[in-house]
Amino acid sequence: xxxxxxxxxxxxxxxxxxxxxxxxxxxxxxxxxxxxxxxxxxxxxxxxxxxxxxxxxxxxxxxxxxxxxxxxxxxxxxxxxxxxxxxxxxxxxxxxxxxxxxxxxxxxxxxxxxxxxxxxxxxxxxxxxxxxxxxxxxxxxxxxx
Length: 145
Hints:
The protein is of the alpha+beta class. It has helices at residues 2-12, 44-48, 91-108, and strands at residues 20-22, 27-29, 32-34, 39-41, 109-113, 138-142.
């Protein structure tokens, strides 16, 4: 379940444009000079869609987070909550809530995609500030009475 959640967060990237920051000193990054006071933005989506780190980045593949022993593998480049001193303070709580809500949903319900739906959700990105999901029709059926 955690591998599915990790892959979902990697693909969705709800906030593709992170908060603006300002460089605190002159520095050089990958050969580019960045002067003190320059506005910078951490582009999380470029990391989570990097083919060197995540082969076939536009394919939903939770197995990339499972090691050879079937255990959850930590990939440092998975950064849906940002990085550094200003990363989301609620990351631990959010991860726990995602696990509990999604696990309980699929434990209690079976999900069927409606034939009238336009298919499964797409991984295509929009040009909006946030990610806008494609509408999907689905039926939930209780697993237990």
